[in-house]
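stage 2 :: seqdesign
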């Protein structure tokens, strides 16, 4: 039975709904709809002009409609009269192929045809910064190795508690909050679940952190590398594939606890990572975080080469425990839907081709990388990543040629704008262009 949003509004005393969607650049856009109009909107959707968003549309195109998914409803814990809804975009009665949530749902459908479902969790790191974005907010947070600093964490207790309490109320099952490896940087973790739900929650989490930070007078940013000398904002994902209640990635007899299916899936990821960096690390600024020089704390905690390992954080893929792996490539600018969709597309390719990820490496990749000159490297900058995506037959097939073409076109126009004004240099401070275009990613 489809949930009736009008009835839910009455029961939960919701006065307004935000019917939202995320475009190709990950921008969260919405219409605020009074509950008296939600019944109509649930059926026909909220209207948007596609050209006004990053979706490669024309001003001459007809209305685009966001049809809300009632299963995604989140009642704001800090303002219960508002209900947030993720929506799927439609135009001329058909789903918009290049809209990220539709792209993810397409991949989920392909995986489900094999009777498989992906579950995932994301670890979204963020900074609390000054309003102008030029420095961190906490002037006392100056340690060289500030990770897990209790005092710096507790100076932000009120804000972090409110975010964590919100997640408890929403039933996300949060279980830990900490100060991360850069000054001014935090991370909050909640339970993994079905990947569409994780993507919706990921979108809402970023909005929630930014909104509540504003309430406390701070600015929160998920920008991949707001400060060139500090560790960047990663968005690691923990991934497993299930068939009903059975974890199909688990094989207790394997030394790392992974099944053949998991290794094939991983092989697909390893083979497609270079092109997928265009989704996982989608901004100019992203490439200050990967292939990066060491930071003030001693390590960048982000990968440069394409490799996997056991419980070792210097590689792109870590297998911390049996039955799952952690992909450490993505950053805070990654579009939550394309992040999940990219992983499934690559995994499906690996399953189809029975890809072999090779042997795990157990070295310290930050110091021993020279011993492995044949390992494939991650793209050096966004331009390289976009070219790799453009040339990827696998991803063209997975998402459709037109969708990839749209993404490449929009990203190339962004790169052109950057190059008109700035030069990319990982060793030099973050440019004004990067701040203007990425601080609110
Ligand atoms: Mg972290």
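stage 2 :: out
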């Amino acid at each position: 039975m489809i949930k009736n949003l009008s009835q839910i509004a009455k029961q939960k005393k919701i006065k307004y709904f935000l019917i939202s969607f995320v475009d190709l650049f990950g921008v969260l856009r919405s219409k605020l709809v009074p509950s008296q109009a939600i019944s109509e909107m649930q059926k026909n959707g909220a209207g948007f002009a596609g050209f006004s968003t990053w979706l490669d549309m024309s001003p001459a195109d007809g209305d685009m409609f966001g049809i809300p998914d009632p299963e995604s409803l989140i009642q704001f814990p800090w303002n219960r009269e508002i209900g947030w809804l993720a929506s799927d975009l439609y135009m001329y009665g058909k789903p918009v192929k290049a809209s990220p949530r539709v792209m993810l749902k397409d991949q989920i459908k392909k995986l489900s045809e094999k009777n498989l479902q992906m579950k995932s969790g994301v670890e979204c790191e963020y900074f609390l910064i000054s309003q102008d974005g030029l420095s961190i907010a906490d002037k006392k947070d100056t340690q060289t190795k500030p990770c897990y600093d209790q005092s710096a964490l507790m100076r932000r207790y009120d804000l972090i508690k409110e975010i964590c309490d919100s997640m408890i109320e929403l039933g996300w099952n949060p279980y830990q909050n900490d100060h991360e490896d850069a000054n001014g940087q935090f991370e909050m973790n909640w339970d993994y679940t079905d990947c569409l739900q994780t993507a919706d929650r990921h979108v809402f989490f970023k909005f929630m952190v930014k909104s509540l930070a504003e309430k406390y007078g701070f600015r929160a940013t998920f920008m991949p590398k707001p400060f060139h000398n500090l560790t960047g904002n990663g968005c690691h994902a923990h991934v497993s594939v299930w068939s009903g209640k059975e974890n199909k990635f688990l094989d207790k007899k394997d030394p790392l606890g992974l099944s053949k299916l998991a290794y094939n899936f991983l092989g697909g990821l390893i083979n497609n990572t270079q092109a997928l960096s265009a989704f996982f690390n989608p901004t100019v600024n992203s490439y200050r975080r990967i292939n990066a020089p060491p930071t003030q704390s001693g390590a960048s905690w982000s990968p440069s080469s394409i490799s996997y390992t056991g419980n070792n954080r210097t590689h792109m893929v870590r297998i911390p425990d049996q039955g799952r792996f952690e992909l450490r490539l993505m950053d805070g600018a990654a579009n939550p839907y394309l992040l999940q969709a990219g992983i499934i597309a690559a995994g499906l390719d690996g399953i189809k081709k029975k890809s072999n990820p090779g042997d795990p490496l157990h070295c310290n990749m930050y110091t021993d990388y020279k011993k492995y000159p044949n390992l494939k490297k991650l793209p050096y900058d966004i331009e390289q990543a976009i070219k790799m995506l453009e040339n990827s037959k696998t991803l063209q097939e997975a998402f459709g040629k037109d969708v990839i073409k749209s993404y490449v076109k929009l990203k190339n126009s962004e790169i052109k704008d950057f190059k008109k004004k700035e030069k990319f240099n990982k060793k030099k401070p973050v440019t004004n262009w990067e701040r203007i275009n990425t601080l609110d990613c």
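stage 3 :: structure notes
- The mean pLDDT is 96.
- The CA atoms of residues 235 and 331 lie 5 Å apart.
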